Here is the input.
Amino acid sequence: MALTTMKNLQQFLNRIAQAVYGRNFGMQGGIYIADTAVHTFRAQAIKCSAASAITFTSLKTVTGDDMTGMQLLAGDVIYGDFTEIQIDTGAVYAYSKS
Here is the structure.
Protein backbone atom coordinates (compact mmCIF):
# COMPACT_ATOMS: atom_id res chain seq x y z
CA MET A 1 0.00 0.00 0.00
CA ALA A 2 2.75 2.47 0.93
CA LEU A 3 4.63 1.80 -2.32
CA THR A 4 1.52 2.59 -4.40
CA THR A 5 0.98 5.80 -2.44
CA MET A 6 4.61 6.86 -2.97
CA LYS A 7 4.36 6.12 -6.69
CA ASN A 8 1.17 8.19 -6.98
CA LEU A 9 2.78 11.01 -5.04
CA GLN A 10 5.84 10.93 -7.31
CA GLN A 11 3.65 11.05 -10.43
CA PHE A 12 1.67 13.94 -8.97
CA LEU A 13 4.82 15.91 -8.14
CA ASN A 14 6.24 15.23 -11.62
CA ARG A 15 3.10 16.70 -13.23
CA ILE A 16 3.38 19.80 -11.04
CA ALA A 17 7.06 20.22 -11.96
CA GLN A 18 6.27 19.93 -15.67
CA ALA A 19 3.48 22.52 -15.41
CA VAL A 20 5.70 24.96 -13.52
CA TYR A 21 8.59 24.46 -15.95
CA GLY A 22 6.30 25.29 -18.86
CA ARG A 23 5.34 28.65 -17.33
CA ASN A 24 8.74 29.95 -16.26
CA PHE A 25 9.97 32.52 -18.75
CA GLY A 26 13.55 32.07 -19.78
CA MET A 27 13.91 28.45 -18.73
CA GLN A 28 13.43 27.37 -22.36
CA GLY A 29 15.82 30.06 -23.57
CA GLY A 30 15.08 32.55 -26.28
CA ILE A 31 16.69 34.70 -28.91
CA TYR A 32 18.05 38.21 -28.91
CA ILE A 33 16.74 40.07 -31.96
CA ALA A 34 18.59 43.18 -33.06
CA ASP A 35 18.12 43.06 -36.83
CA THR A 36 15.30 43.62 -39.33
CA ALA A 37 15.03 39.99 -40.48
CA VAL A 38 11.82 37.99 -40.01
CA HIS A 39 12.18 35.48 -37.16
CA THR A 40 9.76 32.54 -37.17
CA PHE A 41 9.57 30.42 -34.02
CA ARG A 42 7.23 30.05 -31.02
CA ALA A 43 7.72 32.75 -28.40
CA GLN A 44 5.71 33.24 -25.21
CA ALA A 45 6.90 36.73 -24.33
CA ILE A 46 8.83 39.56 -25.95
CA LYS A 47 10.79 42.09 -23.90
CA CYS A 48 11.95 45.37 -25.38
CA SER A 49 15.52 46.43 -24.66
CA ALA A 50 15.90 49.03 -21.95
CA ALA A 51 17.83 51.18 -24.41
CA SER A 52 15.12 52.00 -26.96
CA ALA A 53 11.52 51.66 -28.09
CA ILE A 54 10.64 49.49 -31.09
CA THR A 55 7.87 49.07 -33.63
CA PHE A 56 6.99 45.63 -34.96
CA THR A 57 7.10 45.53 -38.75
CA SER A 58 5.66 42.02 -38.39
CA LEU A 59 4.16 40.38 -35.30
CA LYS A 60 1.86 37.39 -35.69
CA THR A 61 0.33 34.94 -33.23
CA VAL A 62 -0.48 31.25 -33.43
CA THR A 63 -4.21 32.08 -33.72
CA GLY A 64 -3.58 34.27 -36.77
CA ASP A 65 -3.71 37.69 -35.09
CA ASP A 66 -1.63 40.28 -36.92
CA MET A 67 -0.22 42.84 -34.49
CA THR A 68 2.02 44.56 -37.04
CA GLY A 69 2.60 48.22 -36.17
CA MET A 70 2.41 47.68 -32.42
CA GLN A 71 4.98 49.61 -30.42
CA LEU A 72 6.84 48.67 -27.24
CA LEU A 73 8.57 51.22 -25.07
CA ALA A 74 11.95 50.56 -23.50
CA GLY A 75 11.65 47.81 -20.89
CA ASP A 76 8.08 46.78 -21.83
CA VAL A 77 7.06 43.10 -22.06
CA ILE A 78 4.23 41.63 -24.13
CA TYR A 79 2.90 38.12 -23.45
CA GLY A 80 1.26 35.81 -25.97
CA ASP A 81 1.87 32.90 -28.33
CA PHE A 82 3.88 34.48 -31.14
CA THR A 83 4.99 32.79 -34.36
CA GLU A 84 6.59 35.61 -36.38
CA ILE A 85 8.61 38.59 -35.13
CA GLN A 86 10.23 41.41 -37.07
CA ILE A 87 11.28 44.80 -35.68
CA ASP A 88 12.25 48.09 -37.30
CA THR A 89 15.18 49.15 -35.10
CA GLY A 90 16.45 48.54 -31.58
CA ALA A 91 16.46 45.17 -29.86
CA VAL A 92 14.12 42.72 -28.16
CA TYR A 93 14.51 39.42 -26.35
CA ALA A 94 11.95 36.79 -27.37
CA TYR A 95 11.40 34.05 -24.79
CA SER A 96 10.94 30.60 -26.35
CA LYS A 97 7.67 28.79 -25.77
CA SER A 98 9.25 25.34 -25.88
